[in-house]
Amino acid sequence: MKMKKRLVALCLSTALLAGAPAVSFADVNIVPQNTSAAPAIPAGELQRLTWTPVAQSQTQTTDLAATGQTLNVPGITGKVAAYSVPANIGELTITLTSLANKQTGIYAPNVLVLDQNLTPAAYFPSSYFTYQEPGVVSEDRLEGVLKLTPALGQQKLYLLVFTTPQDLQKTTTMTNPAKAYAKGVGNAVPDIADPVARHTPDGRLKLKVSTNSASSVLVGPLFGSSGPSPVTVGNTAAPASAYSAPAPAPAAPAPGAAPAPVAKSEPVLNDTEAYFNRAIKQAVAKGDVDKALKLLNEAERLGSTTARQTFISSVKGKG
């Protein structure tokens, strides 16, 4: 049964995965919800792409030279990759890796996130994907982690990976393998030149999808630095029919006073009620009372009659 009240917005927050001391982090000043810098792509161009589904806990490897697609759109050059990911399994942690090739070339990825109606919702430019040194089982690479919270009612999200003419004019300085080895074994790091990788119109990508429903969304930079709060992208009107992509080729919180109930126009549906109650309990259990209060406000706006009691019981340790 279709829900009368559906959120089509996409709440997003971003953070990079912590790694070895030599790992650098993406520019924390990037605001993914601001899509104004992304290339404008006509809806018809998006709909003609073949979107490769990537399931939970799956890693999809893409050789753009062999299977990459093309878009005749200003601001996009070379090959692109198009993925669809499930949006009804909770918070998503998506790791995108671009691997360097033996000829010291590397694809500088940009990612445009689209909601289930193929409406742009977030943009991660190439500067978000930072160079990571090779390890015992890893290669030189550009990598970034996208943490996305799909709004209620979403079934799929779409990720378009591309590079730009400006990216092709840049390079990435990698770590000399001898230096990486010396660091790994604790030897003195030799004073030798590092290779410089040119940016290429194609390359090898890895996309890994996992859920993050048991832990809080990381917001902004790591290590206690301040950062932006999660925001809602889009509007809360009922969406048009969701786009169907073509088949691909083979600690306990301190109790706080809840805000006054908001007026509601009609009863909320059972599955919506259960969704918000569960989310409120999880937020309180993780010590995020502010998030729980926001969920309570939204639930009561949609007509919930049990969210307030769920909140009160949870903060008292009875949820």
From TrEMBL:
Signal peptide segment: 1-26
Compositional bias of kind Pro residues: 247-258
Pfam families tied to this protein: MalM
GO CC, alphabetical: periplasmic space
Domain of life from the UniProt record: Bacteria
Entry annotated with the keyword Chaperone: no
Coiled-coil region(s): none
Entry keyword Transferase: no
Disordered, as annotated region: 240-263
Key words, A-Z: Signal
Biological processes per GO annotation: carbohydrate transport
The protein, known as: Maltose operon protein MalM
